[in-house]
């Protein structure tokens, strides 16, 4: 988290208070991580920091729900107070090896969004190519994903190759969304109905195609609380800041004020 962003959050106490009032209407907070290993740097969350995040989530009194159940509750108006959904993007092996056992131990349901292109080969993301520690950045193998899914980990799609979706021609966009879903369904032997847009890149066309090829839920990286009016295929989500105090700010709804910035960013190109 950049210090400026935190200062912005903390200097807007009335906004945070307003967000807490909004929360009393039982909105849904969705948060995410990428990988859990080593020390916290870049996309990695250190194991100790991850434990602190889970402690903070428990201390805050979160009711951690499976994604699908939580959105159904949001629609039906039956969502409990402080409902939170936990997610991971990209499908790193460290999630099934390290994070999932810790989450399961605490009874916290979780969704992992996996890139299906990694199922058939040793896919390495552009932003990981400079990293010397290949093993640490390894993506989960198909058998590891299948075992974790049997063990209760919910698996969603993160496309075939992690492209910036708004840039793709329609046929390619369909292929990235539909083929990934098919591959994961074949692997897991169960329906895959949720999607996380790579790097949060989406627009109304992307969202429409996601619906056409069979996804029911789509998760962005536009921060803020999900309300009854948030579309199922463009749900809001924040990645977890390393400092647990910042995580608390996310849970309290303090970042809802950053929505216009996020909406703008989700329409720009990817950072790599
Ligand atoms: Zn990703």
Radius of gyration: 17 Å
Q: In terms of per-residue confidence, which ranges show pLDDT below 50 for 5 or more consecutive residues?
A: 1-11
Query: Would you tell me which CATH topology applies?
Result: TIM Barrel
**Which small compounds were modeled alongside the protein?**
zinc ion
- Helix proportion range: 25-40%
Name the average pLDDT: 87
**Could you give me the name of the CATH homologous superfamily?**
Glycoside hydrolase/deacetylase
Order of helices and strands: HHEEEHEHEHEHEHEHEEHH
Under the CATH scheme, the architecture is Alpha-Beta Barrel
* Number of H/I helices: 10
Tell how many strands the DSSP assignment holds: 10
CATH class: Alpha Beta
The biggest beta sheet reads: 6 strands, parallel
Strand fraction equals 5-15%
- Shape estimate: globular
Q: How far apart are the first and last residues' alpha carbons, in Å? A: 18 Å
- What is the number of independent domains? 1
Please identify the structural class as seen in this structure: alpha/beta
